[in-house]
Amino acid sequence: MTDGAVKGGRGNGGARRSVLVAADKFKGSLTAVEVAERVAAGIHRAVPGVRVETLPVADGGDGTVAAALAAGFGRRLERVSGPRGEPLTAAYALRGDTAVVEMAEASGLQHLPPGVFAPLTATTYGTGELLRAALDAGARTVVLGVGGSATTDGGAGMLTALGARLLDAAGEPVPQGGGGLAALASADLRGLDPRLADTRIVLASDVDNPLTGPKGAAAVYGPQKGASPADVAVLDAALGRLAEVLGEALGPQAAAAPAAPGAGAAGGIGYGALVGLGAAFRPGIEVMLDVLGFAAALERATLVVTGEGSLDAQTLHGKAPAGVAAAARARGVGVVAVCGRLALDPAALRGAGILRAYALTDLEPDQDRCIAEAGPLLERAAAALAADHLR
After folding, report:
1. Do residue 41 and residue 85 come from a single domain?
2. Does residue 146 sit in the same domain as residue 18?
3. Largest interatomic CA distance in the chain
4. SUPFAM superfamilies this protein is in (predicted)?
5. For residue 221, what are the contacts with CB-CB under 8 A and spacing of at least 6?
6. Residue-level pLDDT at 2
7. Using 50, 70 and 90 to split pLDDT, how confident is the model at 66?
8. Which domain, by its residues, includes 96?
9. What is the pTM of this model?
10. Is 195 exposed, middle or buried (0-12, 13-18, 19+ CB in 10 A)?
11. How confident is the model at residue 254 (pLDDT cuts 50, 70, 90)?
C-alpha cells in the first residue's frame, strides 16, 4: 500500500478529502499497480492538496500476487512445472504465516505460446508445487487464487504434486492433464502432505460454476483454452470420472463437492482444492479485500475510486469493482469508477453502489489507440472525476 499524499494543497476543501484508489487491472494495457499510479497522478493534477492512498486489488485471478505485493507481502520465487510440464519460475506472496498463491503463475494461459493450446494435457502440477513451497516457507493460511488457467484437469496435477496417487487399472499413474483422467481407476490420497491438515486453505474465485455439466468447467471454459466440442465432451466425462473415484476414496463428505460453488473454477481446480485440500470457497474479491487490509484503508477515505478494464454485466457478478463498491457502500463511503470500456447504464451502476463511471473510450473512441495510450488517458479521466467530486 502506498500513500500518494501531496503536501501544500489548499482551497476548495481538497486538503480535507482522502481518496482510496482500489481498482483492478485494465487487462491487456495496465496492471492494477499502474492503474492506481495513473489515477493518483490525475487526481493530484486536478486537486493538488487531496490525500490519495492506493490499494491495487484483484479478484483471485491473474494479478492477485501483484496486488498482495503492493500491499506489503514479500515476493517469493519458485522453480515449478508449467502447464505443459516445462520448467518456469513462478512467484507467490508471503507475509508472516499467510501466503497468496496464484495458480495462473504456474498453470496459466500466459505460459502457452500465442495460439497454442493444450486442452487435454495441460496440468496444474506446478500449482501444487507452489503450494508446497508456501508450506515449506511456513505458511499456515494459504489464499489460492484461481483464474486464467490453461488447464481442465480438476486439480489432479496439483494433488499429485502434493503427494496424491491417481492410478489406472494397472496401478500406474494416469497421464497428466484432463484427458488422462479418462483412464483413472483409483486414487490414493494417503501420501498428501500432512501439513495440509493444519493449514487453512481459502479458495478465492470469482466464479461459482459446478464441476461438470452444461455450466461446468469443460463446457463453459474449455473452448477458451482451445477445446473443440469433442474435447469438451472428453474433458467433462473425465472430470466426472475424477469425481467418482475421489468420492469412493474420500467417502460421503465428498459426494456433494462437484456441485459446490467454485468446484468448476479454473478448469475444476476448485474441486480438487475443496475435496483434496479441505479448502473453503469464498468470492475472490472478498478474500483479497480482507488480505489486503481494505477495511482499515476505507476508514481513512472519504471517496473510493475503483475500476477495471471493462465495466459490464460480468462486473456485477463477483468482480473486483462490485466487491469494492459493496464494502464501501456498507460504510457509507461514495464510490466512482474508471474503466477502459463502459457497458453498464447509470441505473446498473447505481445498483452496484457506483455513483458514476469514467471510461477511456469516451476520451478516445478508437479502441487500438485507447489501449496503446491507456495510461495518459486514465490520468485525464482521473482529473475529470477529481474535478467533479473533490472540488
Report:
1. no
2. no
3. 78
4. Glycerate kinase I
5. 152, 209, 264, 266, 267
6. 42
7. very high
8. 64-285
9. 0.89
10. middle
11. confident
